[in-house]
Amino acid sequence: MTLHVVFMGTPDFAVPSLSEILSGGHRVVRVYTQPPRPAGRGRSLTKSPVHQFADIMGLEVHTPEKFHNSSVIDELERLNADVACVAAYGQILPVRALESPKYGCLNLHGSLLPRWRGAAPVQRAIMAGDDKTGVQIIRMEKGLDAGDILLSETVRIKPEDTAGSLSDRLSRIGAGLWPRALAALERGGLTSTLQEGKPTYARKIDKDEARIDWNRTARSLDRHIRGLAPFPGAWCEVNDKRLKVHLSEYAEIGDTHGRPPGTVLDDNLLVACASGAVRLLEVQSAGKPKMSAQDYLHGADIPKGYRFD
Known about the structure:
Blueprint: E1 4-9, H1 15-23, E2 27-32, E3 37-39, E4 44-46, H2 49-56, E5 61-62, H3 70-78, E6 83-87, H4 95-98, E7 105-109, E8 117-118, H5 121-128, E9 132-139, E10 149-156, H6 163-175, H7 177-186, E11 201-202, H8 218-227, E12 234-238, E13 241-251, E14 270-272, E15 277-285, E16 291-292, H9 293-298
Parallel strand pairs: 1-2, 1-6, 2-5, 6-7, 8-11
Antiparallel strand pairs: 3-4, 7-9, 9-10, 12-13, 13-15, 14-15, 15-16
Helix pairs in contact: 1-6, 5-8
């Protein structure tokens, strides 16, 4: 049986999910995504990655600014969809919308619930030093990521993972759950499991968090930098100009010899922290492309002993 599916999603994370659902032969009767937003140096209105992919596939796309508008939900109800598949849509759906499809709404979430409910589960997992995370399809209900778990895959967080690399991996693995979920839904065999344990919440990343605090421990700061890459990107100042740090690594050193946090310890951007040090591997000056730290040093005067602001 072919299901009539409404898909809701916005960023790159959601595109593989939409692709898998289409590949499974289901009919996507409409795609909902966030409206075009200003992007790039020219700040021109740009369609979301899901919107762009849906256009290529010839799908009908709607971009309501607010889903709580009754006329938006009226249109959703008129679709008579079997199910709504949601992946990083970016809006809270009201109860009436959740109950509109015949079998309700299913959501792909990038953590092992109830750990890291909320907007930034991938980033917060890295920043907290978790050694594993996962992807789960849950049945949506009132309450933030509070629904029963339908399918789940556990994923190891690698020491070198950034939010970007981990999100890409979770996106692909999560997309592979949709064919299983929809096949089980068709045959009436989709079973659910209650979330167990105390919830933790992955609050939205605040830009104020992005400035690097060298007074943290090296392990904590390395996780912080990787959790903020590629967006919004951790940063510090070099001669009153902002320098984004896209990638770092924890350095095993026994002693910073009393050098204060933020001090460069060698000629290859090893920087002292409150305890230990981090090595900056990939950086970006304002208005410049991202580059390796070695390439950056060819044009920057940051000698041993320099202290970052």
